[in-house]
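Q: What does the assembly look like in three dimensions?
Context provided by user:
Components: two
Sequences:
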Amino acid sequence: MQTTNNLDIKNARQHIEADLKELIEKHSYQNFFHEIYDYSLLPAGKLFRPLLAYATAMDFGINLDNKDAHNSIKSFSCALEIHHTYTLIHDDMPCMDDDQYRRGRLSTHAKFGQWQALLAGDALHGLSFNLINKIKCNNKYEILNYAHWCLGAKGLILGQALDLDHQMTESFENLVLTHKLKTARLIQLAIVGAYLQTENTTFQQAKALHRLGHHMGVAFQLLDDLCELEDEKLSEHESVVNPWLTRQTQCFNELKRNLEYQKHFFEKYGCENLRFVYGQYLGKILSIIENSKETIISHLSQLKNEEDVETAQAASLDPIISLLNTLTL
Amino acid sequence: MQTTNNLDIKNARQHIEADLKELIEKHSYQNFFHEIYDYSLLPAGKLFRPLLAYATAMDFGINLDNKDAHNSIKSFSCALEIHHTYTLIHDDMPCMDDDQYRRGRLSTHAKFGQWQALLAGDALHGLSFNLINKIKCNNKYEILNYAHWCLGAKGLILGQALDLDHQMTESFENLVLTHKLKTARLIQLAIVGAYLQTENTTFQQAKALHRLGHHMGVAFQLLDDLCELEDEKLSEHESVVNPWLTRQTQCFNELKRNLEYQKHFFEKYGCENLRFVYGQYLGKILSIIENSKETIISHLSQLKNEEDVETAQAASLDPIISLLNTLTL
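A: Here is the predicted structure of the complete assembly.
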């Protein structure tokens, strides 16, 4: 399926990681934040959002031989990862989620101290917009404006607030709203922002990608919650907050709707690179679900507060597995 | 001295306050941050930085009848106040300066909670750059770039870090460096950023304003420290950290140099509005110093670690008072 103009994910990851390394050296001073940046950003994680940006840009024919275009997508991709990292640093702080560990290592505040984490987060927040400002393309104003909408007080930050305010668990609508804001917005920015750097953009295509990003982001979180059920014994916290245990049919229908839109999108628009990057992620999810299918179903069968009659259908994971199979092909 | 094209400070303050009120309604959602924004930004303080921006723009002939030009300077001025407010909210947090009060009221985290303050600060931080992105002028890229340099990890945020790390008190050079970063950078942005929105800008003029902002910012803090000595009895903390008590000659010489540059600047470039706005502030300082001259000098006479032979001159405030008089005329 991969033809000449395809994204080599392994290679792209190495490049993005090298770009991040270069950037944090350039944008810190007197080594003050350098160590914190280095620790928090590197070694890089999956680089999911930067890869989505590169994939989208390539799907819409960005000319990487053009220096300005190449530097723009590079700068934009790093901005996404840097912004993501700032939100994680602030999220982990004692006054927020109070997490001492992230990815198996001490979280930034636990390692360096709280004011250091707060200020390094602030600095990375500013740096991400600084990097978006480096983009050279006709739509730069629109990209920056969209970025602020996605990431500000009506976007990602509102999602963080709804989560901490426990509004997220009050209703299924609030759960989806929180996922949309806290997770989907940055994914939307990755793909719509990258698309807007290509030539001959249309409003209709941007809108379809915006919608795709929404469905990817919400599915991302619902699948994450579903995979949590692979453990035979759930923690008390997981038993209480995992939405699949209390709002199973709604989760099932919402996830199905999200995946169906994605299927529809890729059938209509192609976008092989984007499909490939996202498919890699979905492939991992699929193997978890398939390997732990019985355990997951046994959790799902112990319904709580489930009033819906479609329980039997919901408890069967087959429609989800079938959609995931289509999307990872 | 005031001619037709002059800034009416009282009127401008009312307009800026109304603009801020409008903006925070527009840029919050579901009333989530609205109350925090409202409490933290309003009633507006001196609006020193927005007024500097308006004054500079008028001194360099901005055409406020042009809708784009007017909206741009409006948006930019609000960005300055909003950015300033975000830094104060984060500065007051328990893991930073741990201040329960600001301007005689509970600080934001004391009033609303810590995660609310952290996220509202983040949201205002993003909003300030969003508003700068709304500027319509040829130099927008340069303004945004300069803003990031002034306010990021090599600018204001580094200043906050040096302060919290107690590096600020290690040497006089570090004290001036901290004032330069933590205070002067935002003042520099106010005047250089406003200038860059006017027509026919030159690099040389921008550089002179950049330098003026530096001297204004450092003088601002040194004068603030000097005014602290108006109280006959100083707190133990003030006795230890006030630089005028331990590095008197250096403070004196630095402040004198700062004020002399300002005098030189206004003699050379005019800029009556800018001079007027800054002069209003200096006028208040001058009256404090004149009214408490004897008390201040009595503190200055009790020298600690003062090795300099120019003590007698330094202890006399006359050269400073004379310069302040010139600048407030």
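Follow-up: Chain A touches chain B through 39 residues (CB under 8 Å).
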